[in-house]
Design goal:
By secondary structure, the chain is mostly helical. It has three helices and no strands. This is YGGT family protein.
């Protein structure tokens, strides 16, 4: 009976770890998409650009103005790039911790 409970807990934690990893990767993808759309001068009035931009602003960990270079594209690349890297690191650490349990 105890072995069954342990196996079930491990499987549950594995599923949770997978969900956390997927959510983290989606967040990173949104931040990177915002960088790419900015660098390619996407139409800011376009629905997709607005959607990605609004989500990226919510997910940037408050780093939207960490660096303030004179070029706006460089600012977006640096600030949102750092946020994407941090999300990737946070996600990796949390997933590893969940898989150890």
């Amino acid at each position: 009976m105890a072995a069954t409970v342990g196996t079930t807990v491990r499987q549950g934690m594995g599923i949770i770890a997978t969900i956390v990893r997927i959510v983290g990767l989606v967040i990173v993808a949104i931040l990177v998409a915002h960088i790419v759309l900015t660098l390619l001068d996407a139409n800011p009035a376009n629905f997709l650009t607005e959607f990605v931009s609004s989500w990226a602003a919510q997910l940037n960990l408050g780093l939207g103005d960490l660096f303030t270079p004179s070029q706006p594209k460089m600012a977006v690349t640096l600030n949102y790039g750092v946020a994407a890297i941090l999300w990737l690191i946070i996600t990796t650490v949390v997933v590893r911790l969940l898989r150890r349990v």
